[in-house]
Specification:
The structure is a homodimer. Chain A contains six helices and two strands; from the N terminus they run ααββαααα. By secondary structure, chain A is an all-alpha fold. In chain A, strands 1-2 form a two-stranded antiparallel ribbon. In chain A, β1 and β2 form a beta hairpin. The first copy, chain A, binds a DNA duplex through α2.
Chain lengths: ~140, ~140
DNA sequence: TGTGCAGCTTCCAGCAATTGGAAGGTCAAA
DNA sequence: TTTGACCTTCCAATTGCTGGAAGCTGCACA
């Protein structure tokens, strides 16, 4: 009745609570990642606890490196009580594979560069094997 | 005199030889990564061996994950005979550090996601711990 | 009651680093 | 001559934001 009444907040507060800044919240709304916020009489966006929860969900998913496209799917699955866990799992597994692929690419790059850097004396002299190698 | 004469080529051939496609070569020129190509009477861009070499250099640097900004610097250093090797080395070392940072972030993400995925049965049932965890 | 400022609104523009397309000129072979 | 491959420029889209400008609203303070 009173204490449990909806205490909707403005975008700034929603930003603070979800960890997603206001600019980005509007952006997410505009590209359909999060549902359209309600509006006050004067046109301000209003956010419920549930809305803020979705924003946090998006934030956390981003932190885990999901693309916006994937997150759009995840948010849909999350809001849909009848979704199958297999959908979620396959998305996650695919994503793990992508990240592992990226990690090994980066490791190969580091390997090569470290080798190049080791052969470069790194003083004031003009000749540097890094550049020579890059040129081949 | 004759056999060593400059045999400049069009952008398509330069693309083939450098591994950088024509569209991208024009783009690199427009943003000043590579020097402006010469032009034939009819306005076609022409590329010498040296030009192609620069393009290959850019390609290889990109493969090693350097940003365009860094590559711009590298190309400058490469074309400048009097540069100091310390400039090159510090650029490379900084880049290695950046990549290593990225690798550990990715590894942390994979770790987390792998954990989440393990706890998800991945069948037709609607409840999935991945989504539950993401929501917190 | 004003006034001042924080906070909200929209829209527009740009960042990296490409990629794609449209509309048109050129070159060489058939 | 005509086809077709190649070249030219310019403009737009992509992904995931971030920033600014111009203009409301809301609220405290004098």
């Amino acid at each position: 009745m009173s204490t449990t009444a909806a205490k909707n907040v403005n975008i700034g507060e929603a930003a603070k609570r979800s960890g997603v800044n206001a600019k980005l919240i509007r952006h997410y709304e505009s590209i359909g990642i999060v549902p359209k916020a309600g509006r006050s009489d004067s046109g301000y966006r209003t956010y419920s606890e549930a809305d803020i929860h979705i924003l946090s969900f998006v934030k956390r998913s981003r932190n885990l490196g999901f693309s916006m496209k994937e997150i759009k799917k995840l948010v849909g699955l999350w809001r849909n009580k009848s979704r199958a866990s297999s959908d979620v799992k396959s998305l996650a597994v695919k994503h793990i594979e992508d990240m592992e692929q990226k990690i090994s690419e980066l490791e190969a790059m580091v390997q090569t560069l470290r080798h190049l850097a080791k052969t470069c004396h790194g003083d004031g002299r003009p000749d540097c094997p890094i550049l020579n190698d890059l040129g081949n």
